[in-house]
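In keeping with the milestone schedule agreed at the kick-off meeting, the structural modelling team has produced records for the first pair of proteins. Each record is given below as a sequence line and a structure-token line. The laboratory manager (R.T.) confirmed that both were archived under the project's standard naming scheme.
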Amino acid sequence: MCTNAFLRNKQDPNWCYENFINYRAMKSAVSVREQLVRIMSRFQMKLCSNSFTSPNYYVNMRKALLAGYFWQVAHLETASGHCLTLKDKLENNQVVHLHPSNCLDHKPEWVVYNEYVFTTRNFIRTVYTY
């Protein structure tokens, strides 16, 4: 998504600055994609991409995120109003909270998260809702 826009803008650092995007992170994402393309070519795997207008684009993005972050999913327990990570829900029911820095305007039923932060409370940070 963002990577496509970065490439359309010829990997311009000024474009990143104007859009509040980390230039080095975008360069890294492009590099990882190129590596994956080379690996898939070497193993004669079919390369397939969906355009933004494809009805499957966002479904495929969600599937990829969930495949990579399977254990990093949290569920909102409606009775208590707290989140439980999938891993902790299966093991020890440890409560986690959405980090105050998140930009969500509501508490979604499910989230995928990138970081588990231990401070005075257990927080999950960098969340994606689906």
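The second protein of the pair:
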Amino acid sequence: MAKPYQHLTAGNRIIIEHERGKGTSYQQIARMLDKHPTTVSREVRRNSLQNARYHAQAAQVRARRRRSKANAQPRRQTVRLWEEFAQMLRQRPRKLSPELYHGRKTQIDGQASLSCSWLYELLHRDRQQGGDLYTCLPRRGRNYRKRRASGASSSKIPNRIDIDQRPPEVADRKTPGHWEIDTVIGRGHQGVLLTAIERYSRWTRIRVLPHREAQCLAFAILELLLPVRPWVRTITVDNGLEFAAHEYAGKVLNAPCYFCKPYPSWQRGQIEQLNGLVRRTFRKTQSFQHLTQEAVEQEAQELNHMPRKCLGFRTPQEVFDAIRSQAPPKR
């Protein structure tokens, strides 16, 4: 049985030249070489001279030159794509991973991309050669101490609405307009970040504050959410006393505020994940006392333009813009 297509050797080409000169058919030559007839006919068609005559030496030179060009193109493309990824990684440190880059390029932009495993291999080689690109990757595996809200705190919040009373549709993430809000504390309790995320789109807003006084936080929540008020249906927070003025913000926004159970952080998993992303830029060792609103808004912009696997490698900004282009959800 004839073999499938394989590269021909110089010796194969000498036999082809000799047999074609005698008028031997492609099928007969293929049997002699143990090749597929298509391999022989393609060889003669591609590597014959202008006078339609086939010469083994000239065919070997042409084939070698063609193969060299074919091999060079993938190498050039690999270099180009690697340089593009490296540049994006430096521009957005700790915000971009090989998986996000590859998914965005292939599934959304419809462009060529290096595979995730190859990108990690190139990052490893860069590190072995003294490069520092690996430091721009998102950090993983760090252990964070879980914050625990005390039962006493939850009992001091007036008119607290338990998460058990929250509509079931909020947990499904099938409808927009449901928000989670939390705080990120600077070193030595110097400054605080108020973080808010829309559960459906993962769209984010951040506000820097001098302290966590309840009335101050209520006003800050309004500053963040009033511009998108039609797309605010519910708010979910923890039992921190900084949210004791929740009724005021909820009344203005016409959105009830629900409180999680004292201990299970998974009930606010979306905001916990967001805070982890924020901590990649604003570390626990950093004081927020002199942090500017411009800096945190820049951070929110970067997060909103970061492709997410859970969104099909679209960005939160793209998903939220699509939401806002439609009529606001009914309350």
